[in-house]
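Changelog note: in this version the structure field was regenerated for every chain. One regenerated record is shown below for reference.
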Amino acid sequence: MKKVIATSKAPGAIGPYSQAIMAGNLIYTSGQLPIDPETGEMVGNDIVLQTRMSLKNVKAILEEAGSSMDKIVKTTVYLSDMANFGKMNEVYKEFFSGDYPARSAFQVARLPKDALVEIEVVAIV
């Protein structure tokens, strides 16, 4: 069974997709941009601020679905510039304790709204 997950504590979709989908005991989030859900605006032009906001948005979606950051099994991080990998990584590790999830990280040509980072996850409930 497929269930749409939506929360006002993370930015709404900017296209024809859902914030997340729950299928069985797994949650698949869409890529989360560093958009402040209260203002609808991108936070700064700094990888530290943007990574933190993207992960806060992921956390809000998972909590809405009855899950949490420690139940993430896989993350995918899209970066506009791999030179930002180290700073992104420093912020990323603040959001996890114990065993880290599996992860892939890629530099891409461009992200929506010219973001510096976008993060999607797969988590269990």
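Spot check on this record: The chain has two helices and six strands. The mean pLDDT is 97.
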